Fold this sequence. Notes:
Strand order of the largest sheet: 3-2-1-4-5-6-7-8-9
Low-confidence stretches: 290-315, 320-337
Largest sheet: 9 strands, mixed
CATH superfamily of the domain at 9-166: NAD(P)-binding Rossmann-like Domain
Shape: globular
Amino acid sequence: MTALTGRTIATVGSGVMAEAMIAGLIRDGLVTPDRVVASHPRPERRHELERAHGIRTVAKNVEAVRGADIVLLGIKPQMLAKVGREIGPALRDEQLVLSVIAGATTAALTGILDHPRVVRSMPNTPAQIGRGVTVWYATPDVTAEQRRQTAAILRALGTQVEVDDEKLVAMATAVSGTGPTYVFLVMEALIDAAVHLGFARHVAHDLVVETLEGSALFAKQSATHPAMLRNMVTSPGGTSAAALHELEAGRLRTVLSEAVWAAYGRTQELGDQLEASLAASRAPAAATDGPSAAAAADAGRGGSPAGRASTSPGSPPRRSSAGRTGRGGQGARGTRA
Length: 337
C-alpha cells in the first residue's frame, strides 16, 4: 500500500515533464497504468503515450479531469487562462491539482480554477531521468493525505522538498529549476576549452561530463563544504591555483550570483504577468456583475490564502542589473520525504 494506491491520476498538458512523471510513477509501482489518464489534442501524441506506458488517453481535458483524484497540470503558462476556464467547473472540491507550470502562483491557479486545493511545484530537467529535485508549496486547503500523495508523485522525479512559504518556490526556480542551465553552460565551456587544447570533441565531452558527475557525487557523499573540497585539490603554486586565479579575476562568483538573481527576478515578473493577464480575462465578467462584484474579485486576487510570491512580507527585494542591493529572504526549511 502506498499513498497513491487506488487513486486515479489525470495529466492535463501531457508534455515532456508530465510523461516523466507518468513513467516514474509506473516504474516505481506507485500506480498501475489503468489508473492514469492523459489528455492531449493531437492523436499521434495520444497514441505515443498509450504505446509507451499502456495508459488511457483522451482528447478533451475535461474528460481526463472527471473521475480523477489528482490532476497534474503541465500546460504552458500562456494556456492557463483558457485551460483553467475549461476544467475549473469540472473540478470537485476534494480533488488535488498539482501544477508544474513555471511562474504560476497559487493566487493565479486558485483564481482561474476557482479551486482551493492546489500545489505549486518546480521540478528541473534531470527529473526526466528520475534524478531531479522538485520544490513545492501546498495551499492551506490541501489535506495531510494529499501532501503525502504529492510527495510520492514528486519523489518519482528524484528528490522532493516541501516548503511552507511560497516565495521559496520562486527562489528555487532560480537555483535548482534554472540550475541545469548554469551547469550545461559550464560543461559546454570546458568541452570547448578541451577541444582548443587538442582533444577530439567526443573525448573532451566524456572527460568533462565524467568529471562533473564524479565531482558532484564526491561532494554529496563526503558532505563536506565545497570550499574545503576545493582546498583539498589546490596545491600551492599548482595548476588548480593558476586556474582559480583566472576564474576569480573573471568574477565567476559574482557572475553566477547575478545570474541567479536575474532568474529570480524574471520568475517574479512571469508570476506578476500571469496574474495580471488572468485578472484581465476575468474583468469583463466582473464588470457585468457591477462594481461590488468587481471589487470582491479584486480583493480575492490580492488576499489569496497562499499569498503572492512577489509581494509576500519578507520577500527579497527586486534587484536590477545595474545595482544589486540587499540579500533578503530566509533559507528553505522544507521537509524531505
